[in-house]
Amino acid sequence: MIIQTDIPLIENILQNSVEQLGSDFTSYRNHCFRVYNFCAAFSIGNDFDKDKLSIATAFHDLGIWTNNTFDYLIPSQNLARDYLTKINKIAWIDEIEAIISNHHKIMHLPKSLAESFRKADWIDISLGVIKFGLPKSFVSETLLTFPNAGFHKKLTILTCQWTMKHPFNPLPMMKL
């Protein structure tokens, strides 16, 4: 497994949100690169579209910053839909929205890019504790190649802030 360190489409999409991401730009970028690499590793030997994966990855959590909310799945889907419409990839909307909508799902999805993405995001959110069968060395090397840069600290802060305001819905992005 080779770690992809140059993913221009993710870079280009994120450049359009530099202002909204602010000081979290590097931490979110690195999270995206880690998730992309884990997902691509699950997809080895399978046919998958790298551009679809790049687009889903760039937008999957972006609504946190663009819409200033921890209930960010729909805002992230809307951003992806607008982008796909702009680049005339309307046929991709349903699949990319499904990836974004289900990336925090607890239960397994049918074998698909959405399932690979779900597992990839769980690997990153768990700091590599959960691996879903990926080699420990690959997970560790990916985590080292793209440092956390405060991403998990930011998620912890956002979780605490949201929970204080919404104690009966502390993790609105989670699904069974």
Structural overview:
The protein is mainly alpha-helical and 176 residues long. The protein has one domain: Hypothetical protein af1432. The protein has ten helices and no strands. Helix 6 runs antiparallel to helix 7 and helix 7 packs parallel to helix 8. The longest helix is centred in the first third of the chain and has 18 residues. The radius of gyration is 15 Å and the shape is globular. The mean pLDDT is 89.
Output the keywords.
single chain, 176 residues, mainly alpha, Hypothetical protein af1432, 10 helices, 60% helix, 0% strand, globular
Strands, helices and their partners?
Blueprint lengths: L7 H8 L2 H4 L3 H18 L7 H10 L3 H4 L6 H14 L6 H10 L10 H13 L10 H10 L5 H15 L11
The end-to-end distance, rounded to whole angstroms, is: 31 Å
Gyration radius (Cα, Å) is 15 Å
Mean pLDDT: 89
Tally of strands: 0
Treating each run of at least 4 consecutive H or I residues as one helix, how many helices? 10
Number of self-contained structural domains: 1
Low-confidence stretches: none
Largest sheet: none
Approximately how much helix is present in the residues? 55-70%
Q: Which percent range describes the beta-strand content?
A: under 5%
CATH architecture: Orthogonal Bundle
Order of helices and strands: HHHHHHHHHH
Class by SSE composition: mainly alpha
CATH topology: Hypothetical protein af1432
Tell me, briefly, the overall form: globular
Mind telling me the CATH class? Mainly Alpha
